[in-house]
Every structure is written in C-alpha cells, then in structure tokens.
Amino acid sequence: MTEREIRLAGSGGQGLILGARMLFRAVGLEGKHAAQSQSYEPTSRGGFCHSDVVVSESDVDYPLLTTIDVLLALDQVGLDHSTSQLKPGALVVLDERLAPKPPAGDYRLHTLPLTDRAIKLGNPRAANIVGLGVVVALDELCGRHSLEQAIRDETPARFLDSNLAALEAGFELAAA
Q: How far is residue 157's CA from residue 170's CA, in Å, rounded to a whole number?
C-alpha cells in the first residue's frame, strides 16, 4: 500500500468523525501509520462535515488530505463538497437515498442502500458503520478483524451489538 487518503463526508450528526476514528484505530492496530483530521460547520446537525484519514506503511508525509483516494459520502452535501478533490480511479461509495446525484468521472462508483440497510437493522444512525464496512471490504484499507476490534474499542457497550451488525451488513453489501 502506498499512501491512501480517505474521506468520510456528509452532514453533522451522521457519525463521520467516529467512523474515521474507528478506521484510524484499525489501521494502527495493523502497524500502519495514519493521521486523522476533521472539519465541520458550526451547526451541531445538518451542516457539512467530513473526517479524513491518511494511511501509509511508513511515516505520513503530510497529515491533511490533499486529494481523495477513497470517499464515503453519506449525503449529497458531503459528496458535492468533496467531488473536486477526487483522484481519477478513486473508490466512491455513496448512500443511494441521501446522495442521489453521483459525480461524473473516472471513479470506482458504488451507490448502495447504506441508510436503508441501517434502518432495516433498527438503527438508522449506523449508516456510517455500514458504509465503513463497505469501504474496507472494497479497498482493503485494513483487515476486517482490525476494524471489528476498533469498533469494539470505540463503541459504548449499549451500541456494540448494533454497530457490529452494521459492520456485517456493510461487508455483505460489498460482496453483493
């Protein structure tokens, strides 16, 4: 793996920062180097939010994202704010319900029912974890076991079963 730049984008309240923290922890468990950052508008819910992770086998040259290798967009706001930074050939995973207008370009595009799957599991707020499972399954940023361990480490006990079910749903969506 060369250096990979990953963005989780959407609106405040979708768990994007938590998802990036989980990914950051997972790659660290595998001995990879990483940097994680986030930005959000001053509204607590609904404003543009993104969290970025830069992953490398060696020291991270620059800790902030400059171009996007992997994008998980949970809504159109996050997608629209991130499209200009996509590299050709980037993996782009979109929520089909909340990001209905995919970008034109040379991308590995996957439009999937992330929110719908989370709703089916009984936790619409777990779309971030469903999407994280899809991204890791498709791009192999880290191993499934490492991501599961990171979710265990970062999730309060009362939400653990729900988040693990969402992770499983993400891997299932990626395999379909």
A: 20
H/E element, 110:
strand 108-112
Q: What is the pLDDT of residues 11-41, one digit of tens each?
A: 988 899 999 999 999 999 999 999 999 887 6
| Pair type for strands 108-112 and 68-73 | unpaired
- Specify the residue for token string 């060696």: 58
Question: Is 60:77 a contact under the CB 8 Å cutoff?
Answer: no
Amino acid identity, position 90 = A
Predicted structure pTM score: 0.93
Determine the topology of domain 4-175 in CATH: Pyruvate-ferredoxin Oxidoreductase; domain 3 (3.40.920)
Torsion of the alpha carbons at 154, 73, 119 and 140, rounded to the nearest 10: -60
